[in-house]
Design a protein that fits this description.
Helix content: 25-40%
Number of strands: 12
Oligomer: single chain
Strand order of the largest sheet: 5-6-7
Structural class: alpha+beta
Number of helices: 9
Strand content: 15-25%
Amino acid sequence: QVAQEVGIPRVASFARSLGVDQSKLDPVPSLALGTSPVTLLEMVTAYSTISQQGTYHKPVTIKRITDRHGQVLAEFGGETRRAMSSDAARDLIDMMRGVVQVGTGTAIRSRFGVSGDVAGKTGTSQNNADGWFILMHADLVAGAWVGFNDSRVAMRSDHWGQGGHNAILLVGDFYKSAIKDGLISAKAKLPPARRPPPAPAVLPQPDSWLLETDRERLDREQREADQVGAITHSGDIVVHNDNNGSIVIGDKASITLTRRAADRSPPKSSEELDRMLRAMGRAPRAGEHGGAVSASGSGLPPPPVESGEYSGYGEATPVQ
């Protein structure tokens, strides 16, 4: 809406003045969503312009050449120009401080422990094809792009497709090392905020929430439960591994357990499971397990099977 209000051609022209001046920017409404591909160098240059309060500096590969005595033999400087007002640049920096404090870039602080005055922005393209993250520091602006040369190849999930879950890991690790090695100072300040900064978010420890999908969490919980012999399935009837090398089938409500010796094979059919349940004093109702016990493999239900009161999860493996 903002792009359409001010005019799409003006948006493209403004991006070029910031430093996105090599890639083609199609003057269409979706440009505001990032549908025109640009290079990582252009993105970092544009964010450098913002961090310098709107002053554009053309990037150079070699800044100066000195001899062995330290005397400057040649010095190189790129083009410099005013690309945007200082106030507008400071407003943008304020917004992107919030990204690191309470938004999608909080891993910079919670996972990598980057302190000091920093601001950044995550980015995710359609269909999880690209992930971006740019971080601004008073002495250094750095960014990362994660993706594939063929845009038809995308990340495996909405979780990993986010710049806040892929590209941020590269940038965060880079800044953590740069600060630790004294290459940049954690005390350096970006231009002062024009409004009070947002309060930091109260975040859980990142080891379990940043890099772990629901599928991976379930797998981890399954492995941990197998190690301690805990009941791992929901529903009235549970099947799990026992520490003593036995398969345990029981009624969760009454905690009544029937053990099968480790050298015996698991139940091969629903009829055999019925007999085991009757032996423990519980006759299954019609359709309770729905024939979920497999005639091959581990003998445990394939995922996901739920019928009546019996439910199972197929990642559990009996101890043979």
